[in-house]
Design brief:
heterodimer; A: 354 residues; alpha/beta; seven-stranded mixed β-sheet; four-stranded antiparallel β-sheet; B: 315 residues; Rossmann fold; three-stranded antiparallel β-sheet; 9 strands; 15% strand; binds iron/sulfur cluster
């Protein structure tokens, strides 16, 4: 599709114009980090950012999502009836989302939008979004997107991609939604004919700047039970404090827990994020916990992302390489190390002390 | 530092070789700047993995409980105080531990340092009191004293309080430190200001409970926030539930907290969780002359009763 050139002095004005149609979200600086926040009148996304501390997944899958309300007052005609809470379907746009995070939405969609099950909350929120991506000219040292099925200029999952070309932005629409957004901003200057080449050049520089990589080629052929029984889990899990930070900050973690909360005779049924790192996650009503030990939970996180998902969807790993879990884990458990260890595991070469 | 490392390795190797312990718990080099990873070593030939520098802030007392092995643990001042807590609270037996004491010169604050640079940090090394930070290909020298974790800058127990081995000479403790200026600052606020202050402090909390899980004091098999029968606290992002968690957790730590800073260090969104515990630490000091984890011979003030308690309400 065609590439638009935006003079940096026209940028803010265009963003402002789109607010009459879209509710906007973008990276905003708070102290020393960035978060995706609603952009009110006059507020602009901070395009000098690297990536947000927590992923923007909460814009589609909020940490707390009220689904139904009910009342238990038998004097009311509709008592004990679950009533859907209306959802906001108005158009929204995320400005400056990084390609890995947009690609994560597609990945998560495989779980929330299947031929058998369609998650209405997730889909409603996702479908109301336009994703104006922002290519990464300067990836950070913990990014390994290029070997996690994605990349600093990856387009899949985005509606348009913005490239910082120094004095100007180059903006390429990728879908009709993207086109519509660009039109509403009033940006219409066609980029010079060599724009595609400039983008290619920046792209290859950025890809070369990705310093860390994972190997995933052998994961699919590994035997599930042998990986599960591999001797390294105890060592990988040792330092883990089961805090769940890795899963809460991850754009591709999707687990939730459903809770009813009553206030007097009224109540709300909601879903909240949950994490396989928590003991409660797998605790049975009987009191038995099939993942009763820390090592079981750590193994589950990595087996799910790097083996079960790989086998089930045949579409790479359940990770886009954003590096958040590496940056935020308080004890430095590094998925790159674990992935390589799992990938290269050779049960035959393993001398077990049995 | 390198002297410490040699001594740590040497001690670990000796203890493993002569069978005094089954494992040594310490730190190995991390995969990102300003992070080391807690690890266990079981074979003498693996002690080379052990490291020591200003990125060993994680409290290793957290890794000692509910284990069968005889363990040697590398312990700085605050870790040793939390070990004392564990022993007093019957979480570990003294005789199952060999404490490799490290006189500590403080840990650096990775967030503060990251916040000083526009670009990501590529490497951090240290040379005595100088921290060398490489960012965007440029090296910057920082004084360690300017970039210490807040709790380390305020620490007056840098030497381990109990130990079996020592990896260096005991160091002079800091004196003349105003440890509770922050507490006084908050105390001086009006009720409305305080309300706003705590609301702002806690608003980014995602309730991951990393603060709780990093804390050696929080070892309840099921935390009150996780109980479901009865359910004491809601599980959503409701700010009242979030505050309930923080206030109750802080009170559970009263008279036990060593101000190790593990909670603050672990928080993914940088909440100053110590704002709560510092106040209770100061109160314990003023009311009972008590600082946690300094002695094996006395129980913490909040789980004992004394007829001569200075407070009237208890009589
Ligand atoms: S962030 Fe690190 S310590 Fe916390 S649960 Fe994940 S791997 Fe474990
Ligand atoms: S597993 Fe880690 S690196 Fe992969 S997408 Fe999640 S947070 Fe990012
Ligand atoms: S509350 Fe925080 S500072 Fe106090 S002992 Fe626990 S982790 Fe350390
Ligand atoms: S670690 Fe931080 S975000 Fe997590 S529960 Fe504690 S204060 Fe909240």
């Amino acid at each position: 599709m065609k590439v638009i050139s935006i003079d940096k002095t026209e940028w803010a004005n265009g963003i402002e114009k789109t607010k009459s149609i879209y509710r906007l979200f973008g990276p905003v600086k708070e102290n020393t980090w960035h978060s995706f926040m609603p952009l009110g009148p006059g507020e602009q996304p901070d395009m000098a950012y690297g990536n947000s501390r927590l992923s923007p997944k909460f814009l589609v899958h909020p940490q707390t999502e009220p689904m139904f309300e009910y009342n238990l007052d038998e004097k009311q005609a509709d008592h004990h009836v679950l009533k859907e809470i209306p959802k906001d379907v108005s158009p929204k746009a995320i400005i400056g989302i990084r390609p890995c995070d947009a690609s994560a939405f597609l990945l998560v969609k495989r779980n929330f939008d299947t031929p058998t099950y369609k998650d209405p909350y997730w889909l409603t929120a996702y479908n109301s979004l336009t994703l104006i991506g922002y290519a990464c000219n300067q990836p950070c040292s913990t990014c390994f997107c290029t070997t996690a099925g994605c990349g600093p200029f990856h387009e899949e999952g985005l509606d348009a991609i913005l490239v910082d070309a120094g004095d100007r932005y180059l903006l390429k629409a990728l879908t009709e939604k993207g086109e519509a957004y660009i039109q509403s901003a009033g940006w219409a200057t066609s980029a010079p004919s060599d724009a595609d080449q400039s983008i290619e050049k920046l792209k290859s520089t950025a890809e070369k700047a990705i310093a860390s990589h994972v190997s995933t080629d052998k994961l699919r052929n590994q035997s599930t039970t042998q990986l599960y029984d591999a001797p390294f889990w105890e060592e990988i899990a040792f330092s883990c404090i089961n805090c769940g930070t890795c899963t809460y900050s991850c754009p591709t973690c999707w687990c939730f827990d459903i809770q009813d909360e009553n206030h007097g005779k009224c109540g709300v049924r909601m879903r909240n994020w949950d994490s396989c790192m928590y003991p409660l996650f797998s605790l049975h009503g009987t009191g038995h916990n099939p993942r009763g030990a820390k090592a079981h939970r750590v193994r589950q996180r990595f087996m799910h992302k790097l083996k079960y998902y790989v086998d089930k969807y045949d579409n790479g790993i359940q990770c886009v390489g954003c590096g958040r879990c590496i940056r935020l884990c308080p004890v430095n458990i590094d998925i790159r190390k674990v992935c390589n260890q799992m990938n290269s595991y050779d049960p035959a070469a393993c001398v077990c002390p049995v | 530092m390198s002297l410490y490392i040699d001594k740590i390795k040497e001690t670990a190797e000796r203890l493993l070789k002569d069978g005094s312990v089954d494992m040594v718990i310490g730190f190995r080099k991390g995969s990102v700047p300003m992070m080391n990873e807690p690890c266990f070593i079981q074979k003498p030939q693996e002690v080379h993995q052990l490291v020591w520098d200003s990125n060993c802030g994680i409290n290793l007392a957290n890794y000692l409980t509910d284990r069968k092995e005889k363990i040697a643990v590398v312990a700085k001042g605050c870790d040793s105080r939390n070990i004392v807590n564990h022993i007093v609270e019957n979480k570990i037996k003294r005789e199952k531990l060999v404490i490799i004491g490290v006189p500590c010169t403080g840990m650096i604050d990775k967030r503060k340092i990251a916040g000083m640079f526009d670009k990501p940090i590529d490497a951090v090394t240290e040379d005595g009191d100088i921290i060398l930070v490489t960012s965007a290909g440029k090296e910057t020298r920082l004084n360690k004293t300017d970039v210490l974790q807040e709790n380390c800058a305020l620490c007056i127990h840098r030497n381990p309080v109990i130990y079996d081995e020592l990896v260096g000479d005991l160091i002079e403790e800091q004196t003349g430190i105003d440890r509770y200026a922050e507490v006084r600052r908050v105390e001086a606020m009006s009720p409305q200001e305080k309300w706003q202050y705590f609301e702002d402090l806690l608003s980014p909390c995602i309730r991951c409970y990393a603060c709780r899980n990093a804390c050696p004091l929080c070892y309840c098999p099921t935390c009150f926030v996780d109980e479901s029968r009865p359910q004491w606290v809601g599980k959503s992002q409701d700010p009242i539930d979030t505050r309930t968690f923080h206030f109750l957790r802080a009170y559970h730590c009263a008279g036990r907290c060593t101000d190790c800073g593990a909670c603050e260090r672990a928080c993914p969104v940088g909440i100053k969780v110590r704002q709560f515990t510092s106040k209770l630490n100061r109160d314990c000091l003023e009311m009972f002359g008590w600082e946690a984890g300094l002695t094996l011979d006395q129980r913490p003030p909040l789980d004992t009763y004394k007829p001569n308690d200075p407070n009237d309400f208890i009589k």
